[in-house]
Amino acid sequence: MSAAHPPDRIPDDVVQLVAQARRPVVLTGAGISAESGVPTFREVQTGLWERFSAQDLASVEAFEADPALVWTWYRWRQSLIRAVEPNPGHIAIAEWQQLPGVGLTLSTQNVDDLHERAGASVLAHLHGSIFAHRCFSCDEPVELPDADYDGFQSPPAAQPPPTCGACDGPVRPGVVWFGEMLPTEAFEQTAAAVRAADLVLVAGTSGIVQPAASLPLLALERGTPLIEVNPEETELSELMDHCVRGPSGEVLPKLLRG
Ligand code: BJW
Ligand code: ZN
Fold first, then answer.
1. Atom 44 of ligand 1, residue of closest alpha carbon
2. 123-147 pLDDT, tens per residue?
3. CA trace torsion 169, 52, 246, 198 (10° rounding)
4. What phi and psi, each to the nearest 5 degrees, are found at residue 229?
5. Among 90, 127, 133, 242, which one carries the catalytic annotation?
């Protein structure tokens, strides 16, 4: 059963749990990048995508139905991510990982590269990377230059995806869509780290999307302390020992510096 704490009153025992952890695992979702200016997955969309939820666009069916719309959405999101910077939440995790005597495993559902740009080493991008591309038909990797959209404005019109040099199929982003398998090794390595952890901290995820949302259960089964950092209650809050209800860019630096 969880205890919820406001960000300006984090109890000492929560700070101690963090300070004493030797094998912590940090699991992050879209909320960790929100303060950098990357919209979370379940926020309302604007511009070309006004009539669509992100969930409607992140599937094989959506790409097959309207490849230009889905392709342009991903190319615009790449531009947006290129245009923003890591925030104090990303930086606090990277600093925690670099502390002597701490073997911190970081695994994220995010397809952005903001953890890496903050200096962290990421064990697994469970839902892939938005900067990788491959052929939708034959799976061949495809190298592309960055899109030249203005990341802060929706593009004026949808552009069809380029085609694969090997088979002429459409190019797709290297992310995991609904109904697709997660990269097996990335998921298994994260699960092993959670089983071996002495603390699991979950930040910025709604805990709705499976199987990533089941990872904290592996800690619960073992009695490993679980901390959630999120301004809102989530599907996972009930499992937690402690919930710190605030934005990760504010809470994580406080949690780590006491
Ligand atoms: C802050 C903050 C601040 C705000 N600080 N926090 C079991 C039961 C039911 C369904 C399923 C099931 N098992 C599988 C499914 C189906 C499906 C699924 O889970 N559906 C659910 C909707 C119910 N899962 C799948 O399809 C997965 N594949 C699979 O299971 O394969 C096996 C299989 C194959 C074939 C047949 C059958 C089985 C694949 C899931 C792939 C998800 N992909 C996406 C898109 C990636 C590419 C892209 O980015 O476009 O991944 S969906 C989207 O959701 C994205 C995210 O990584 C993921 C999670 O979202 P996240 O990170 O939690 O973000 P939000 O927006 O939901 O939440 C943000 C949170 O931040 C909120 O809580 C805010 O409060 C908080 N926040 N500001 C801290 N400043
Ligand atoms: Zn191809």
1. 177
2. 999 999 999 999 999 999 999 999 9
3. -40
4. -120, 115
5. 127
Structure tokens at 254: 């406080």
Residue 173 C-alpha to ligand 1 middle, in angstroms?
17
Compute φ and ψ for 2, nearest 5 degrees: -95, 155
In the block, which residue shows the tokens 């719309």?
Answer: 69
Does residue 25 line the site of ligand 1, with CB under 6 A?
Answer: no
Q: How far is the CA of 255 from the centre of ligand 1 (A)?
A: 26
25's tokens = 């695992």
Q: Cβ–Cβ contacts within 10 Å for residue 196, how many?
A: 14
> What atom in ligand 1 is closest to the CA of residue 89?
5
Mutate to test the pocket of ligand 1, among 41, 53, 217 (most ligand atoms within 8 A of CB): 41
Which residue of 59, 93, 111, 178 sits with most ligand 1 atoms within 8 Å of its CB, as the best mutation to test the pocket? 178
The amino acid occupying position 47 is: G
Q: Write the pLDDT tens digit of every residue in 234-255.
A: 999 999 999 999 999 999 999 9
Domains in the chain, CATH or no CATH each: 1-38+84-127+181-258 (3.40.50.1220), 45-83+129-175 (3.30.1600.10)
